[in-house]
Amino acid sequence: MSLDVPAALLERAESGRIDDAEFVDCVRRSLPYAWSVVSEVAARAAVTTAEFADHAVPPPGEAERGQLLRALASDAIRGGLERHFGVKLAFQNCHRVAAFPLGAVGGETYRRFISPVAQIRNQSPELRDC
Superkingdom, according to UniProt (predicted)? Predict the structure, then answer.
């Protein structure tokens, strides 16, 4: 799943002249499922009293799974989304996305969520090929 980059944006990128807002808008338009998941957890993270908000529903299809993987596996895309929403994103099992307030990064709950133990505990046979 690649980004759908308008010619004008690509031209500006060739000369090194794009800003975060243009980049994030390209991500929003190109990866609408991933955008909806990240924007939803980020909005909940901003208002919850919990230490983080997460989305653990498997995507409805492979195209949506691909969008989520593309968004969260790319350092540039993930970083752009984190800066835009003001959260730290964490990812498990091809579909579980969590948004942590920046102040929670490095805390016990965050460290536990991103740990190898948490990854193994959240694994199941039906997720093996996700």
Answer: Bacteria
In the predicted model, what is the mean pLDDT of residues 7-17? 90
DSSP for 26-68? Answer: HHHHH-HHHHHHHHHHHHHHHH-SSS-EEE-PPPSSHHHHHHH
What is the pTM for the complete model shown? 0.88
CB 111 within 8 A of CB 103: no
Closest to 97 in 3D by CA, of 50, 51, 39, 15: 39
Is the CB of residue 34 less than 8 Å from the CB of residue 72?
A: yes
CB distance 100 to 58 below 8 Å: no
Tell me how far apart the alpha carbons of residues 108 and 76 are, in angstroms, rounded to a whole number: 26
Q: Which run of H or E residues covers position 91? A: strand 87-92
Which residue type does 30 have?
Answer: S
Residue among 93, 94, 63, 89 at smallest CA distance from 77: 89
And the tokens for 10? Answer: 């690509």
For 111, the token pair is 């460290």
Task: Classify strands 87-92 and 96-101 as parallel, antiparallel or unpaired.
Answer: antiparallel
Mean pLDDT on 16-39: 95
